[in-house]
Amino acid sequence: MIPGWKVISTSLRALLLSCVVLTAANAQVPSPLGKVTKLAGGFRFTEGPAWDGTDSLYFSDMPSGAMHRWSESDGLTLVRRARHNSNGIVVTRKGELLFCEGGRRIVLRQPDGEEKVVADECEGCPLGMPNDLWIAPSGILFFTIPIIKSNQADRYPEGALSGTVCVVSSDFTQVREVGYGLKNANGIVGSADGTRLYVADPRAQKCYRYRIGADGSLSDQQVAAARFSDGLTLDEHGNLYTTSNEGVRVFSPAGEEIALIETPEIPANMTFGGRDGRTLFITARTSLYAVRMNVRGDFTTQNNNESLK
């Protein structure tokens, strides 16, 4: 044995371990601070979770045509039940609900319950079935329309848009198609500074990242996660959260998978909320779940909640 090798090896090992700890800290690896907890159940298929910035989470139970609100103080409350079900939801700064409706349109619901249609066509074409949506800091609204399957074609008018992304101007007067390079379009979320848009493409088994232009146009398509996902959300470090059969998978800004949060049921979507922004709410089949995290959500733009900036 080389004299002093044991001492050198021990020191080297300590140095390597410290580097691993520093690397993990610098990577801001997200992890649960407790167990995934069931908040409510008995639903048919939950989707579209949206935090209101104060104390309530809104979500859809699609087959039931119901939208619910959950809060720690009041528990579960029915917000609306309609012939056309809701799907993705966002809450505006004014406390309004913007949501995708199964009646092939985007709807704005005032706090007093009054509703109006924001969009039901795009560049003269009727919408397919809008799925999910996100509001940029500029006020423009992006929404996805999944592809119309051949066995569903008779449910839609001729020429209905599908498998793409549309953008609505901040005054709701113009609707344009901006999606490209997609085989399908499903979950959607944007970056904290409003310059990047993320879109899940289940058919391509990828999630893409785009650069957002001042007019809402998209460019510079890149793969953000090379896997299937339904819903999407972001945390404060730019990590992308995706859904899988095993639970919520998290990808770093470099596209590397860095965490798996196992869930009792297959998740459809998720969003951050809670008074400190560290609760991850997960809609998964028949239930609504939550788990405390060591990171905050990306509230600079997510749902435009000023109180969590």
Model description:
The longest helix has 23 residues, at 5-27. This protein has one helix at 5-27, and strands at 37-40, 46-51, 56-61, 66-71, 75-81, 86-91, 97-101, 105-109, 115-119, 121-122, 125-126, 133-135, 141-145, 164-168, 175-177, 188-190, 196-201, 206-212, 218-225, 232-234, 240-243, 247-251, 257-262, 269-273, 279-284, 287-292. By secondary structure, it is mainly beta. A hairpin with a 3-residue loop joins strand 7 (97-101) and strand 8 (105-109). The protein is built from 1 helix and 26 strands.
Compact overview of the structure:
The protein has about 300 residues and is mainly β. The chain is built from one helix and 26 strands.
List the helices and strands and how they pair.
Blueprint: H1 5-27, E1 37-40, E2 46-51, E3 56-61, E4 66-71, E5 75-81, E6 86-91, E7 97-101, E8 105-109, E9 115-119, E10 121-122, E11 125-126, E12 133-135, E13 141-145, E14 164-168, E15 175-177, E16 188-190, E17 196-201, E18 206-212, E19 218-225, E20 232-234, E21 240-243, E22 247-251, E23 257-262, E24 269-273, E25 279-284, E26 287-292
Antiparallel strand pairs: 1-26, 2-3, 3-4, 4-5, 6-7, 7-8, 8-9, 10-11, 12-13, 13-14, 14-15, 16-17, 17-18, 18-19, 20-21, 21-22, 22-23, 24-25, 25-26
